[in-house]
Amino acid sequence: MGISKNAQVVLERRYLIKDKDGNTIETVDEMFHRVADAIASSEKMYENGEDAGKLAEVFYDMMTKLEFLPNSPTLMNAGKDLGQLSACFVLPVDDSMESIFEAIKQAALIHKSGGGTGFSFSRLRCEGSVVNSTGGVASGPISFMKVFNVATEAVKQGGSRRGANMGILRIDHPDILKFIDCKSNNKEITNFNISVGLTEAFMKAAEKGDDYDLVDPHTKVTVGKLNAAKVFDKIVEAAWRNGEPGIIFLDRLNRDNIVPSQGEIESTNPCGEQPLLPYESCNLGSINLTKMLKKNGKSWEFDWKKVEKTVKNAVHFLDNVIDVNKYPIEEIDFTTKQTRKIGLGVMGWADSLLMMKIPYNSTEAIELGERLMKFINEVGREKSQEIAVKRGTFPLFEESILPKDKPQRNGTITTIAPTGTLSIIAECSSGVEPIFGYVFVRNIMDGTEMLEVNSVLKEELERRGLYSEALMKRIAKEGSIAHIEEIPEDIRRVFVSSHDISPEDHIRMQAAFQKYTDNAVSKTVNFSHAATEEDVAEVYKLAFRLGCKGVTIYRDGSRDEQVLNIGKVNKDEEIPAEELTGRIVPRGRPDVVSGVTERVQIGCGKLYITANYDDKGICEIFTNTGKAGGCPSQSEATSRLASIALRSGIDVKTIVSQLKGIRCPSTVRQPGLKCTSCPDAIARTIEKIYNKHIELGYWDPDAISVSSLMEDDHVLTHMIKFCPECGEAVEHEGGCVICRQCGYSKCN
């Protein structure tokens, strides 16, 4: 099994088992064995099940060959005590205090287990309406979304990440205008993606410029009217401004609701590709299309027999996941097994097109996408029917809208999910997204740079004798090869990047895959910074006309202002956009500073700590040890790093918390000392000076710092170009945000 160095790093960082001290104690090969054995063990639950050992070999083989990978929770948790294998869930939120806070509790349990959650707030009565039971006034859905947001903030998944949420509100809810603008401030409701639930009736009214009714969800009475065209424009304006809200077409979700007797589909998972009933879960996996190709002479083409084999094995795998999954809530266990929905998707689509020399933005690519997804969906359905013969249909099959003459094991078969981290492991492009960039400059630990070039482009350029490091650096800088004239036109025509592709072609590709996908397609339509609100509006309208179930857009640079704020220590100083590199650069040491020197008794004798500061805060720490000796090099190193952190805008309290309380053997042997080590002494001095100056009003404690923003992943991932964990550029794709350097994503 061969995986890239980058994939190895991502796996070690996020997937492989660690001991209590954080040391990796599992190899990549052992991980795949763990997952394969756990998923195959489901066969023991059925009298006519296959040989679990042989099936485990099949599962292991297709994963190690990177032909198929399940969603991240399955890779992380299969075969472990936690055993929670689903990516996301939808929870109900009804119009009562009991239901609201039950949903918050259940969401906390899900986030703790590593899952994301989707909610519809459409059942909550509007702000200002009377609550009959108390005579009080309702606070409205936006207010409760903030409560959900705070609860999510407090629960870190597995101790390492916060939960991702989707919040949806129907277009005919009386508070819809407040909802559209609820994320205009990127510091609020930071743990939610939001989408407006549009109806067919609304879209027709918007086209005609007619008014439409606002309906009180509690009384079902019309309480007002709005002009649909103006509301549509408001949605467009907000999305153009910072990418939110997205839109989903509720009627289309419910047109494909396989068990309408169980209620309406009102929400999706956080990335929007999996519409679910309350208490259902999404169990996803993706086929790596680059591994489904074969040579035909000098050209590549799909090996349809291999696609068929992989699809069948993948459907079997995902059906087994439902059985071995340890769901966080009993209601989810029951409801998921009532419909047994799975979501088999693809990744590596753009890379496959490159290998076949087919431009992403071509009619040929769209037609091939339709053909491919139709084939996958049909083969997947056939396999589900085959499993149904052996194991039975899903329990609600007789209530479903599916043909009764073809018993089926799974309510749905296909979903196109974002595959950010999985595609890093598989070394391919994400989902059905185009290539975001062909060349990346990766920063190595010693400060050197390494060029990472798309393998297909590199091979083509080397074959023609055009490859050079200088050319790669130019491509990395420009982000595209479209205007590099020394590269032949036929190469430029095929190797298009995300921003070379028109928004309309983005949508046409999404619609091509949606045509034969049971659930939905997660995809981001990337706009250039110069795109207008009219451009966004046309894409939304086109998505509606072409049968998409939802749309997510991102206009390049639409959140740059916030990025600049992060990069600034001094609010009054502007950093030119061209200087923004993704790394935090400390401000220079002022020429004139004030300072305080403190003498502290440590285990080794006396330590002299000098803290220098200006009107912006503490900017420099240095130390000197007395004649007794001690560890001067260690103290100096701590001081230098603290100085850099302070001048980079890192919150003082964060620095203090990291240093304070560190113990040294010399202090342990001498009870009664106020300081436990040199780092502890440095922390105490910094804290003392900081608190004194805050008390005197010299410094602003509410000034924006890097750490206060960095601690909130979801603030960053919605508004940044750079990863909050490693500082490299992030990509907006598949309704998500992914860093290809370290594997960070909003949902993982």
From TrEMBL:
Single GO molecular function: ribonucleoside-diphosphate reductase activity, thioredoxin disulfide as acceptor
Positions of the TSCPD domain: 587-689
Cofactor(s) needed by this chain: adenosylcob(III)alamin
Catalytic activity: a 2'-deoxyribonucleoside 5'-diphosphate + [thioredoxin]-disulfide + H2O = a ribonucleoside 5'-diphosphate + [thioredoxin]-dithiol
InterPro entries for the chain: RdRp_reductase_class-2, RNR_lg_C, RNR_lsu_N, RNR_NrdJ/NrdZ, RNR_R1-su_N, TSCPD_dom
Keyword tags: ATP-binding, Cobalamin, Cobalt, Disulfide bond, DNA synthesis, Nucleotide-binding, Oxidoreductase
Occurrences of domain Ribonucleotide reductase large subunit N-terminal (ranges): 4-83
Catalytic activity, EC: 1.17.4.1
One of the protein's GO biological processes: DNA biosynthetic process
Domain Ribonucleotide reductase large subunit C-terminal stretches: 86-402, 407-554
SUPFAM superfamilies to which the protein is assigned, alphabetical: PFL-like glycyl radical enzymes (SSF51998), R1 subunit of ribonucleotide reductase, N-terminal domain (SSF48168)
Presence of keyword Manganese: no
Gene3D superfamilies, alphabetized: 3.20.70.20
Source organism, top-level taxon: Archaea
Chain's role: Catalyzes the reduction of ribonucleotides to deoxyribonucleotides. May function to provide a pool of deoxyribonucleotide precursors for DNA repair during oxygen limitation and/or for immediate growth after restoration of oxygen.
Family named by the database record: Belongs to the ribonucleoside diphosphate reductase class-2 family.
Protein name as catalogued: Vitamin B12-dependent ribonucleotide reductase
Organism from which the protein derives: Candidatus Methanomassiliicoccus intestinalis
